[in-house]
Amino acid sequence: MFSNLGLNIAFRLIEREDPKTRLTLVVTSRTLPRVREVIDQIESHVKKLKRPGIVDYDYLLVDFTDMVSVLSAYYELDKKYDAINYFFVNAAQGVYDGIDWVGATKQVCCNIIESVTNPNYRIQRVGVKSRDDLGLVFQANVFGPYYLIHKILPLLLAGKAKVVWISSLMSDPKFLSLNDIQMIKSDTTYEGSKRLVDLLHLATYKELRKDAVHQYLVQPGIFISHSFSVYLNLFTYYGMLWLFYIARWIGSPWHNIEGYKAANAPVYVANMVDPERQDLKYGSATDRNGREYIKTQEVDGTGATDVLNYIRKLTLEWDDKLKDQITNTRIPI
Ligand SMILES: NC(=O)c1ccc[n+]([C@@H]2O[C@H](COP(=O)([O-])OP(=O)(O)OC[C@H]3O[C@@H](n4cnc5c(N)ncnc54)[C@H](OP(=O)(O)O)[C@@H]3O)[C@@H](O)[C@H]2O)c1
After folding, report:
1. What class of enzyme is it (predicted)?
2. pTM score, two decimals?
């Protein structure tokens, strides 16, 4: 979960906490080198803050496209902790196959802001499944994290936790068909997965609130990340960055560009006292001069119950499939 955004969520969360409080951060990634890199970065940030309270670091290797790995993550957390206070669902992946450069040029020429807010030129592969025979993006971005939350619920209840789902601006209802919730036939699986996140949040937050677990939906606007840059060379990367600044300058509130500013809304909701509107999507926004603020959006809840029913049924199926599974994939650091 420690992408550019994940790292900045950690920075901001530590900055907002009482400096005297002892904190434990559990960094998650699919790989050990990334865990080490992230812990080093957080440690050096904490040193600069000179906080008197201790920060302890732990890690969890989890791949949400592998249900045994998700289950191991649960065992690990359950074994070591009595309570969890914050849980950020930040991990996401797409199944990209490059960029349609002709389409990209056309969209940039027609509407700059739209071209770097809702790009329609990223080519996504269709029908990609995981080894668990689930839609890959569905499992990585939605079902895997949901299943982990379902398993660690007692820890979240004990910690009266804040659960924060990272959605996106690109989660329009048109990207998801309720007849294809795993998005096997879709060529907009990334966007569809974010629509599923929106609906799943709306379908579940009230029930969680009864047990003092507060769940929020946020979107980080647009910022620079690894997922952006893999298909770009130096020239196109800086071209994209330049378009981001133009978009901000001509009025887009969503071009945060920096991961730190994108992490504003996730940390804002995590610190919200006495929440009133959990049905809204809280967005990280910036004005023309790059000054940050929070901007909310309404979410269309059509289909939320259907999605929840589908996912609950799948959860029961996986509870059954995994009932005799005990694993320990932890490698000493
Ligand atoms: N960048 C943007 O402009 C933008 C806009 C809107 C929303 N978002 C959302 O913001 C969040 C962070 O985005 P980002 O751009 O910073 O992401 P990123 O750099 O692409 O990183 C994605 C993160 O997800 C983790 N991840 C991916 N697949 C995973 C899997 N199968 N199991 C476990 N972890 C997995 C990765 O972990 P490891 O690689 O370390 O294993 C990595 O930490 C995502 O939810 C994204 O959809 C981003």
Report:
1. oxidoreductase
2. 0.95
| Ligand 1 center from residue 168 Cα (angstroms) | 11
* SS3 category, 216: strand
CA distance 248 to 153: 40
Query: CB–CB of 60/27 below 8 Å?
Result: yes
Boundaries of domain holding 303: 4-321
| 125/296 Cα distance (integer angstroms) | 32
- Which residue out of 74, 223, 227 has the highest number of ligand 1 atoms within 8 Å of its CB and is therefore the one to mutate? 227
Q: What is the mean pLDDT of the chain?
A: 94
pLDDT at 131 over 90: yes
4 CA from centroid of ligand 1 (Å): 8
Residue linked to tokens 């206070």: 85
The token duo for 293 is 């603020």
Domain presence at residue 333: no
Q: Decide if 64 contacts 23 (C-beta within 8 A).
A: no
**Phi/psi at 331 (nearest 5 deg)?**
-110, 130
pLDDT band (50, 70, 90) for residue 329? low
In a domain, 186, yes or no: yes
Q: pLDDT at residue 333 above 70?
A: no
Active site residues: 167, 190, 194
329 within domain boundaries: no
CATH number for the domain harbouring residue 78: 3.40.50.720
pLDDT at 20 over 70: yes
- Position 55: which residue type? V
Distance of CA 107 to the CA centre of its chain: 27
166 Cα–ligand 1 center, Å: 9
- Which token pair is 220? 């980080």
| 241 vs 258: CA distance, rounded Å | 11
CA distance 208 to 153: 9
3-state secondary structure of 223: strand
